[in-house]
Amino acid sequence: MIYLFLDADDYLLSRRLAVLKAQMGDAEMADLNVTDLAASQTDAADILYHAGTMPFLAERRLVIVRDYLGQLDKRMGASKGTESAAYTEAARLLKDIVHVPSSNDLVFVDKGVDKRRHLWKGFSSEGEKSDGLADLIASGRAVLEEMGTPDARQLNGWIMRAAKEEKIGIDGQAVQMLANFVGPNLRQLSNELQKLAAYAGGRTISGADVKLMVSDSSEGLIWDLTDALSQRDGRKAMRSLHDLRRGDANPFYLLTMMARQYRILIKVKDAMGRGSSNENEIAKEVKESPYPVKKAMQQCRRYRMEELESVLERLLQADFAMKTGVDPETEIEILVAELTQSPSK
Description:
The protein has 345 residues and is of the alpha/beta class. The chain folds into three domains: 2-146, Rossmann fold, CATH 3.40.50.300; 152-213, Helicase, Ruva Protein, domain 3, CATH 1.10.8; 217-339, Zinc Finger, Delta Prime, domain 3, CATH 1.20.272. 60% of the residues lie in helices and 10% in strands. The strands form two sheets. The protein has a five-stranded parallel β-sheet with strand order 2-3-4-1-7, with helices on both faces. Helix 3 (44-52) links the parallel strand 2 (34-38) and strand 3. It is elongated and about 80 Å long. The mean pLDDT is 88.
């Protein structure tokens, strides 16, 4: 069978490949019948050779080809016409891979195939028509499997399905907190589910369990953002903001977390101004955990108290603007840009 795993999440891909390898039978013999080809070290002739080789002392053979289709697609796009070497190679590949023995699985793992171009849609070269990848899929000669990383709207459902597969009980609040704390890192989510299940000891995992056992990765990223803001490092601040957005962080959530961090800075600076210097003592006084207090002690030295109060006022203005029609994403970017400017004397 020919498989196309396009734009696959790394964790989902590793699990799917593990299933294919498990279907090969004895692990020792399976290892002898798995070939993993990188785009930079292979071409159509090499792929067809390995895909056409019969299994050795086993029932099945697995050939994995990584990033080749994307590179071939780019070469075809850069060609001056369909008579080029890239098109000739594509025509040979598309014509002959359908003859892969039924005992063999040929898997293309790729992120860069443009569905608007010839490799996907098909083309004619020297008067002969070549089917594209889409034709192979439509006719059942190849299978396209969607394994993209779930977005923010899909993440809760993925966690619930993963828990069900592992026979782990988890309530709705815990699912939401886990999604917020970890984000779309599926490997980490799977590990956290196993850790929480072991802690819960057979009972349903609750929100309190998640709060106790799972660190909020987005909080660390927020501290990276506020650290960049306190250094007036606009480039670093924007990079931190984009890292948070890649985790599908909601603009209102970002604003809330930024406000929380600046309130901590104010409380810690006030405590330090009254002579406190031990992070554990300050943490107890301001009723925060030692980690954010330690970070705040480093950052608040870069601010005067009136500057921190001014930042909170600006955050309040942003909140009002975002709730009364201003585009939230744009307002957050403007806010970050303003906060990295040098303070007025």
